[in-house]
Amino acid sequence: MRLGVRYLPIVLFVALLGVAPWIVGSYGVTLLNYIGLASIVVLGLVLLTGVAGLTSFGQAAFVGMGAYTTAYLSTVSGWNPWLGLLVALVLVTLAALVLGWITLRMSGHFLPLSTLAWGLSIYLVFGNVQAIGGQTGISGIPGLSLFGWRIESARHFYYLIWLIVLVIIWTVHNMLDSREGRAMRALKGGALMAEAMGINTTWFKTILFVLAAQYACVSGWLYAHMQRFVNPTPFSLGAGIEYLFMGVVGGIADLWGAVLGSGLFSLLRQWLQDQLPSLLGGSGNFEGLVFGVLMIVILQRAPEGVWPWIRRLDPTRRNIALPFAGPPAAAALESRRKPPIGETVLKLSQVTKRFGGLIANNAISFEVRAGEILALIGPNGAGKSTLFNCISAVDRPTRGEVRFLQRRIDHADSRSVAAMGMSRTFQHVRLLPRMSVLDNVALGAHLRGSHSFVASAWRLDRRQERRILATAWEQLERCGLSEQAAAAAGSLPLGQQRVVEIARALATDPCLLLLDEPAAGLRYLEKRNLAQLLGRLRSEGLAILLVEHDLDFVMELADRVVVMDFGEKIAEGLPQDIRRHPAVIEAYLGGVGDAA
Amino acid sequence: MNLDIALYLGQNGVTLGAIYALLALALVLVFAVTKVIFIPQGELMTFGALSLVSIHSGHAPKVVWLLVVLGVVAALLDAGQLLRHRQGSRLAAVLAGDLVWPLLALPAAYLLPLSSIGYPGQILLALLVTVPLGPLLYRLVYQPVAQASVLTLLLLSVALHLALTTLGLFLFGPEGSRLPAFTDGSFTFAGLPVDYQTLWIVGLSAVLVLALFGFFNFTLYGKALRATAVNRTGAQLMGISTAFAGKIAFTLAALIGALSGILIASTTIIYYDSGFVIGLKGFVAAIIGGLASYPAAAAGSIFVGLVESFSSFWASAYKDVIVFALILPVLLWRSLGSHHAEEDEA
Prior knowledge:
Chain A is α/β, with parallel strands linked by helices. Chain A has 22 helices and 14 strands. In chain A, the strands form 4 sheets. Chain A has a 6-stranded mixed sheet, sandwiched between helices. Chains A and B meet through helix 3, helix 4, helix 7, helix 9 and helix 11 of A and helix 7, helix 12, helix 14 and helix 15 of B.
C-alpha cells in the first residue's frame, strides 16, 4: 500500500496524459506535442547540467541534425524514416563524441563555450547549404508507420511523443539509481574523489553529453515527421538557449523538472506572444526580455527551479530520509586475495619530488606491511601531503620509485592504483552530501561491479546492484555506522563523515588504506572510536598508512612511525623510540629543553 | 588571388583583429576577476555604437532610460540591504554611487545641443550613457551570486544576453547603421591604400592593450584585481572588496566594449543584434589565449581577424562557421597540452 501511495502522483499524471487529447482540443494537442518534444531535449540537459554540472547551448543544433538528416533521407533518398533515425543518431553521436573528446578533459566552461560556437555554426550551415534547401528548408516529409500502424495525425504523434518522454524518464531514473549512475552523480562536486575510487570522470561526462545529444536528435526526428517540413529557424542558437531556460525554470536537477519547465515555458511564451505586442507596441519578439529577466531572478533566488515547490506539495515525499529497510538480501561481492600479514605491500625507494627549485621530498624510503599501521608524522610543511599525493598517484615523483604489491606505480594514475587495491580518504571530507550514506559507500565498490548504464537503464542489473549495496552495508556495519545508512551524508557530524570515508575506502576491497589526517577535528570520544576501528582493521590484515598531526593518537595506535621534516625523513622506528629521538624533539620543539 | 587582394584582405583582417583584441581583453579581464564568462559584452558594444549613431543624428539615445531604471533598481536594493543590516550611515554614499552616472547622463542626453558638441563630444556622451551600464549590470545580475559556480554565472550571462538583445531591438529598432570615420581619407603605404580609420583602430587597440597591461602589472588597483582573481577569500581578508573589484572589471569591460563598438561601426553596418556574433569571435580569440593571458589573447585576435578576412573572400557565406570552427583545433591543442588537474566545483 505504501508503494501505491508513493507512485500515485505518477499514475495520476500518466492517466491525465492519456485522456488529455480528448479534453484540450486540437490546438491543445499541438501545444502538448511541442511541450513533449521540448521535454525530450530538456531531459538530456538535466543529465548534462543537473547531473554532470556541465551545460550545452547547442542542443538545438542536435535537434536540427536529427530533423534534417531524416528530412533529407526520407524525401530526397526515399529511405524509411526509422532508418533515418538510425543514421541521425550515428551522426549526432559522432559530433558529440568529437566535441566531448576535445573539451571534456578541460575545466567545465569549455564545453558550453564550444557548444555556443557549434550551435551558431550548424544553424548557418543549415541556412546556406542549397542541397538541404537553404533558408527554404525541406518539405514533403512523410509521416511514420510502426508495424503497419500509421502515425500521421497530431493525436497519433501525441501518444508517440509522450510515450518516448515517459520511457526516457523511466530509463534515466533507473540509470541514475545504479552503479554507473552513482558515478555520474559524483561528477558534480566530487570528481577528485570519484577518480580516487577508480571512476573515469571524463568518460562519464562524455556519456552524459552523448546521451543528451541523442535525446535532442530523437526530438528533432519526431519534429520533422510530425511537421512534415523543416527549415533552419527552430534550430538556432536562440532555441538552444530556450531549452536551457526551460530546464532552469522547471528545475535542472530533477527529471520531472524538465517536463514541468517545458510546460511552463511553452505556456508562458504563448501568453506573452499574445500580450506583449499590444503592450509594447510594434512587432518583434519582446518575450526575450521577460525570459531573460525571469531567468536571472530564478538563478539568483531559486536556482533549483519550480520543481522543489511542487514536490513539497506531495506529502509522501516530504521525508527525504526514509528509514532504511535493513540490509539488502544478497551476498556481498567476492573479495580479492590479500597479501598475508607481514608481507610488504608498499615500498618507497629514494622518492624525490621537486617543485622547481623547492625540494618537497628528498630521497624518502620506507615500507608498509600487511597487518600494520605506519604513521607518517611531521610538522607543517614537512612534505607529508606531497608524499601522500605521490603514493596515491595524484602526483608523480621526480625521482625514485614507488612499488605497490611489487609493481611500480610512480607513473600510474589514481584510477589504476585504485583498481590494484589502494584506497584513500581525504583530509577535507569529500562525500556527496545529498546522497545517502549507503550510496556514498557503494561508490567505493564501483570497480567491483561490471554492469553498464545501458543494462541499468532497463533494470537488468538488479542482482549485481543488490550485491553492491550488500557490500556497502557490510562495510558500514564493520565501521559501526549501519544505522545511518539511509541518512544524507551531509547531515552527519564530522566524526561520522570521516568514518563514512573509511567505509567507502573499505568498499573498494583494498590491501592498503591511506588515511589523510583522519583524526583532524574529531572530539575525544570520536578519536577513541576511530582508533578502535583502525585497530580492528589492522588485525584483519590490512596495511594502513596514516598521515596525522595528532601525536597522542599516533603514538597509541601506530606500530611504526616515520618522521619527516623539511622534506627529509629524519627518523623511523617504534613509537616509544620516536618519542625520545633527539631529531624529532628538535623538529617539534625547536631543540629547546627536553620533552617531558 | 593576387598580391593586391591579399594585402587588402590582410589589412582588413588586422583591423578586425584589433577590434576582436579589445573584446578579448575585456573578456579575459572580466573572467579573471569575477569568473564570469561575459557573453553580453557584445551587447555593450552595440549599445555603445548605436547610442553614438543616435546622438550623431541629433536624437537623445534611449539607452539612458535603461541606465536610469538600472540605477534606481540598484539603489532600491542597496538601500534595502543597508537598512536591514542597520548600516544607514553608509546609505547616502552608496545611493550616490548607484545614481550619480544615470543622473548625470539623463540631463546630458536630453539638454545638450547634440549636433553642436562635435564628434569627440558625441563620443564622450555615448560613453557616458553606456559605460555605467557595466557596473550596474554587475551589481544587479552577478554580485548577488558572486560565489556561485562558473556554470551558474555563465547561465546568468546568457540570460542577460537574451534580455539585452531584446532591449536593443526595443531601444534602437531593427535598422542597421554605420558611423563616420574619426578621420576621413587614406594614404598610400608601400603601394597599398590605407584608411586613416584603420590607423585609429589599430592604434587605439594597441594603446588600450598596453594600458591594461600596465594597469594590471604596475598599479595597486590592478594588483588588487589580480589578487581577487586568484583567491577571492584571501583578497577579502586583505581588505580588497570583491564587489568593488567586480565593478571595476565591469566598468573597464563596458568602456572597452563601447569603444570597440564605436570603432567597428565605422567599418561596417551594425544592427541591434550584431554584438553577439562579434563578441563570440572575441571569445574565440580569448580562448586561443586560454582565457588567461593578455598578449596571447591579442595575438589570437589578429589570427581570428585574418582568418575571417580571408575566408570572407573564398567562402563568404561560411566565414562565421570557419571562424567558430577554429576553436575546435585550438581547444584540442590546449587539452592535449593541459595537465589533468581536476578542480572540484561546488
